[in-house]
Amino acid sequence: IKGKNPADSSGLFFRDGKKRIDYILVYKKSSPQVEKRCTFEKNLRAEGLMLEKEPSLTNNDIMFVKVHAPWDTLCKYAEQMNIRMPFRFHLRCRQIKSWLPRNPMKLDKEALPDLEETDCYTAPFSRARMHHFTINNRETFFSNSTRSRIVHHVLQRTKYEDGKSKMGINRLLGNNTYEAAFPPHEGGYKSRHPIKTHGAQNHRHLLYERWARWGIWYKYQPLDLIRRYFGEKIGLYFAWLGWYTGMLIPAALVGVFVFLYGLFTMDSSQVSKEICEDNTTVMCPMCEETCEPWRLSDSCVYAKVTYLFDNGGTVFFAIFMAIWATVFLEFWKRRRAELTYDWDLIDWEEEEEELRPQFEAKYSRVERVNPISGKPEPFQPFSDKLSRLMVSVSGIFFMISLVLTAVFAVVVFRLIAMEKFASFNWHFVKKNWQFATSGTGVCINFMIIMSLNVVYEKVAYLLTNLEHPRTESEWENSFALKMFLFQFVNLNSSTFYIAFFLGRFAGRPGKYNKLFNRWRLEECHPSGCLIDLCLQMGVIMFFKQIWNNFMELGYPLLQNWWSRRKIKKGGGGGQNVENKTQLPQWEKDWNLQPMNAHGLVDEYLEMVLQFGFTTIFVAAFPLAPLLALLNNIIEIRLDAYKFVTQWRRPMPARATDIGIWHGILEGIGVLAVITNAFVIAITSDYIPRFVYAFKYGPCMDKGHHHQNECLRGYMNSSLSVFDMGDLKNGSQSRYCRYRDYRAPPWSPVPYEFTLQFWHVLAARLAFIIVFEHLVFGIKSFIAYLIPDMPKDLCDRMRREKYLMQEMMYEAELEHLQKERKKNGRRYHHEWP
């Protein structure tokens, strides 16, 4: 990094100004775990690490332990961990050609000057073959993140009690021996001088200027720099998030086109015209006590808005989005393969993880030999594991039943609100009672969803700990699956009700189905129930994204502001530090917020739930991809700002993929095909209109005509007749209409289903079968056509392997020749 200011190095080195701080341990002087801490630090020094203690300037009870890894220790553990480093001989940087033309979204190469060596060949580090590697400067050969990862590896495997198999910083953090352990940031993220003229002070400053600032929201992310600073696991998250956001662009464009098609053809819709122009058709009352009959034309606005989302483009867009989900996942596999190659993760395998402290404490009396390491370790009996799993599953089902209870409560509210709004004194509300009912129901449902989410997180945490997972990755996967199930059901249960149950079991006038023999079940509007589904999705998606973004950035900002305020007041018993720039870097980092205890679970969960909203009911809401795209553009910069400025630097962890989330995304893709088929067939009026146009309409025997001509008379065909005199015990009859396919009261079998009802039902079922088989067939064919790894990448990998073998051979041969010459000169010199 050019233009480095020495003043910004405060807190990055030991007191001698030479030894770089690779890790920070924090403990309280009042902590009773003195013996464990002393043993642990003594063993750290025995492993080759150097320690230096420093008291806090703001809190007299806090002590910092600075950890430095010398060159020999770094080399020793780099060899043990098979860390790949740049190769020296015949260095050839691999060029990955791009067919994309130069565009303003790319970052300029001069803006990231020191990332060029990441494109060069690498090999596993070996002390015996140290002469093979490019070691221009021992201080910079291992990057800061690599040094931190090596130190973390040592911290995890160092004992804190002699003679016992108790080891690792995680356990010491769990029993409060230490308060925190984190790698330090590389300095401040702001500079008084512009980066264009003076360069970046450090990688953190460079990340802030080229990634976390709002002014570059349209630029590609510097993934190599993110990976170098935060590690491959976080780098893969941002790579996936960026890929998902980029893939949303075509989906959002098609969704907007479908919406605009509905907007521009709204006035020419035959169904809307018939509803708006029909001043004579009297509709049956929406409730039986205070409601009165109403005219079909009163719902003109409702019908036009419905057409925006229920038109000819609906089926096309549903098929497009199902294929889009497959293409997104298949091309992500290819992108992941390229990243794992570029980041030297192809041959990397996860090391055998250490046991969680809670698991070890619970099952320390029962041991068995680990089949990998061959050492005895605590073991969880199968009967205990099964019983705990059953309790956990029961807890999951209980929480899901609580969700369904909340949905039922919202349904009851809608039934009560429907009667109240339909008999409201205010004419505007009475005329638009459908919107009023749906709108208030959605808002109350959203508040319930956000309230229950808080409860779910605590329950999921308790149930996961109850299972006592063996390792941290098992804990994370179990917790992630529970959180996804809870929040997915919580978010989508009311949406499923509106899509597939609303208006399906209402009955008919004179024989309505009632809840608790009191409230009539809700009916669909004469133009369909799709607008209710659209309103539900739009409100929840819009407000949830705003709330998530506020909480993601607002909470850390408030916490850090409160920490700074306490420091200024000297609330910790230390010095009253007026200027926070006087604090060393380790103290500034300690005052930041730690990364979420759940790691990246919360970040992935938010995006995966959004992916579900974008695909599962997209037939009802074509603007969902556009909302998701706008949110993600903000989300990337929010997360970047949070990681760079508001959080302590997380340990640079390695990973080769996005873990359990890929399987969840594939499951959502399959569910999306099924739900969209049912939405079009059952919720939308597409199938009834199709059956009418080709079987009952004016075009059935006259060949091809314009769609609107074929739908003439559709509304009259879809409304049945009811004699209100049947309710008034022989009073003068007066007919009203209701949405159904039933015989009129004067027919031989009054109010029985007509033949048209069975034709529509058969068409719905046929459409579901054809749609699912067609889309699943296309999805499978696309997945077959797109290989998981690009062919040119396979060729580059084979070529690199071949070249590496040649280079290693040549390097070893050259080294042996130099040794022979050296020994020959020594022999000649010593000969008398």
UniProtKB/TrEMBL annotation:
Chief subcellular location: membrane
Sequence intervals crossing the membrane: 237-264, 314-332, 389-416, 484-507, 608-630, 658-682, 761-786
Anoctamin dimerisation domain segment(s): 13-223
Domain annotation Anoctamin transmembrane: ranges: 226-800
Gene Ontology CC entries for this record: plasma membrane
The keyword Cell membrane belongs to this UniProt entry's keyword annotation: yes
Membrane topology note: Multi-pass membrane protein
Cell membrane found in the keyword field: yes
Subcellular location: Cell membrane; Membrane
Family (UniProt): Belongs to the anoctamin family.
Protein name: Anoctamin
